[in-house]
């Protein structure tokens, strides 16, 4: 490929050029591999590389013991940091979550143990690959409106050394085990790494689900002068009783109601009313660690759906935060921030469904981990493109599309009443989605990640033919 491909993938340069390798040949190989994976998104390595030499070079690169996630994601992390600092004083939400990539292997020991069950794999006969997989814990930075800015920390591991942990819990009280010896230590590591990367702890709000309800995490956030918003599952010691007892006696000026539109998995929506309570409490550390950690003054927020269930799961959120909450407006703001936590699950879905990360046939954990790092960058780009058109519909199309891509979209998808005539980002995102099967009806929701990655696959294939016809490829 010549200059036209380089121009169309200029966004990729911004994400990887700052990555540093001990061998300069690795930098050029990384760039070449990322271009091929983007152009062949969702396909196998041999399909994306197209020839034997390029495929073998990709295998050697992914197998190198001088390459790991820190090298591969360094450029993307720095680009993420720049995007965050460009927003000046706006708060940044750092969403943490864990996901599992399951694989079917005849020799699962080469990859590692991932758990007793991996979604998507069905045990048949003497199948021993059911527990084969890699776990990834990531921190995704998003704006308070939900625009993904990039990854700030990623951890990969297998559970070989954690196998049998459930049996161990019958003999040892988990609360007395040092946090450094637990798998949940990854939550603290990501918090520390993200804070060190961004260098603006006062602007960061680390958000996690019930798995992140860890007292040590609260103490670390206080030590680093950063903030957190966590869904709690532990009835912690508070004041002279427990948190649940304290929240039963909330004064009337710390109560309120908030109306929201709740959308389920089938995209049907229903309007519900949340009864909200909030109260600042003095929380005590677990009894087994009372001498190690101090008391903390945190705010508990409980939001409960009012009225009958109507055959739907009743909404109830119990949140803990170190941020001040003095009014209903501030309480609902924290609920809205926490609602963005599901975006990291969407990001993981893009990796698995859009990039087809679980279909790789690589045979070792090291190779798979390096490949997953590549998919992290591509998945962020897909997710960013989907959300950007919702946040900035009137922005110029050149913000996300190259000149060639705009010409192809204009040729392939004609303007309609749903696709405006102006050269906006919204227009060309809808055209891209229509390549992926988006109908574009007025009553439809904005294009989602599925139609965007389908559209990108078709666009990349069409662009290759376009460049061959116009003499820009070869």
TrEMBL record:
InterPro entries: RNaseH-like_sf, TN5-like_N_sf, Tn5_transposase, Tn5p-like, Transposase_11, Transposase_Tn5-like_C, Transposase_Tn5-like_N. Gene3D superfamilies: Tn5 transposase, domain 1 (1.10.246.40), Transferase Inhibitor Protein From Tn5, Chain (1.10.740.10), Transposase Inhibitor Protein From Tn5, Chain A, domain 1 (3.90.350.10). Residues 10-67 form the Transposase Tn5-like N-terminal domain. One of its GO terms (biological process) is DNA transposition. SUPFAM superfamilies: Ribonuclease H-like. Residues 202-375 form the Transposase IS4-like domain. One of its GO terms (molecular function) is transposase activity. This is IS4 family transposase. It comes from Acerihabitans arboris.
